[in-house]
Amino acid sequence: MLNSKKFITLILTTSFALTACGGGSNDNKAGTPATGNSGGNPAMVWVQGQFTPYLELAGQCSANQTGTTLIEKLWMRSWSNDTYLWYDEIIDRDPAPYSVSEYFDLLITNELSDSGNAKDVFHFSMPTDEWEQLNQSGASVGYGFNFQLINRDQNIERNVTVTYNEPGTPAATANIDRGAVIVEIDGVSVQNANDSTSIDILNAGLFPSETGKQTVFTIRDLGATADRDVTLTAQTIVSTPVQNIKTLQTTDGTVGYLQFNAHIATAERGLFDAFTTLSQAGVDDLILDVRYNGGGLLAMASQLSYMIAGETATANRTFESTRFNDKYPTKDPVTHETLTPMPFIDETLGFNSGLLAAGSALPTLDLERVYVLTTAGTCSASESIMNSLRGVDIEVIQIGGTTCGKPYGFYPTPNCDTTYFTIQFQGINDKGFGDYSDGLFPSSSPTLASEIPGCMLDDDLFHALGDTDERLLSAALYYRTNARCPATVASMAKVAATSEFIDDGYILKDPRNQTVIKNNRIITDIKGAL
């Protein structure tokens, strides 16, 4: 049987001082694999409590016979012991009985947060070539639709509902739009599947691993009374992270709206163009829709925050400071540089130089407040935007659901064709706040530091994103005019898309158990580094 596993949203962050994805340097400081082999080195054995420096073990891989799987495991053990935020909470086990991936899964704290939840739910790995493709171009294998997945418990039926599609993809061509329910996958009922074989078919359809895979989806479109069958062929999907840039005319000014889905390299061009358009339109307020944004490049979050707040509000202020483990109170353990706060970045960085070169001044809106639309899929770098703007007294109004709760980050670190993600630091805003591991949540009468003025609302899958009748956008516009939530506020859904339910022992998940933004964008949150 498949074990239950929490779905979380991905966030990647990297430093404005580094190229994307924590790339290496000639001295291998960022953990780029070195070459060599064990050569019978007696250090290449496990001794409890003794750790060979991980740089001495890097790049010694079983696949190309430059090393062994034991050395690969010893590398990740030493790397974790040196850089993991809670390194002293890892049980030091003999790696021999475990595969490389199994051993990595054990190099994590088992402690709980103050609220009783698992302290670390953001620990994962993925093939390096997939990570590089995803981060640099937003490309992954799929059909082009993002979906909300709810696994069942005794009170809730299993459900897969499309939240949006990517332009120009098989899903968009087939008119599989927001609100469409996936009823069957290759003849297997989503709602009623109750054995491992059926669940495997559902997972294989929702999470294709190779281009060319054909899957038959039975779709019930929003408002339809009959189902239809659609055959989709998986392909490499290039996401459009910045969509739906609009100006909304109201009786008391012009409001900008922006759907922002991922902090990946290609988004820099989209954000630059979007804010240029909104700035030229002279918007009086901004509604930033990050309800499905699991995060991305932390430096991009800093750029976005600067474009919202402008030069005066951010001058000589900190976007985010970072705290590493107690071995490194003043130094970054990966770059080995002295810790300095990340500023609000006021220029382009050229994450994807083919789209936008570095060094251009960013457009700004110079706003004193921003409305942010959120769900449990709003994670990491997206949360940093909210937290860091509040740190410089920009008013943040939160409309929607509680965010995922990831004030942490990491450097994606490659070794032996796999890139590993383990929490290495905590982010703190200009006022010294970064304790929101249970999420940032809207409240009509906030009292806690993690509570933000706003309205707690369900996601609305019955209207298009950017439609002024869509529940979250409508509530933001109402709040802007009336300084309060609408009189009729829907309660939060019984289950968020990222919640964990036992599902009678069978739960839909990526069969590779990878926490990575794929075409569905519901799997995990990664937050990069300084």
UniProtKB/TrEMBL annotation:
Gene3D superfamilies: 2-enoyl-CoA Hydratase, Chain A, domain 1, 2.30.42.10, 3.30.750.170. It holds the Pfam family Peptidase_S41. InterPro entries: ClpP/crotonase-like_dom_sf, PDZ_sf, Tail-specific_protease. Residues 255-407 form the Tail specific protease domain. Keywords: Signal. Transmembrane segments: none annotated. Residues 1-19 form the signal peptide. This is S41 family peptidase.
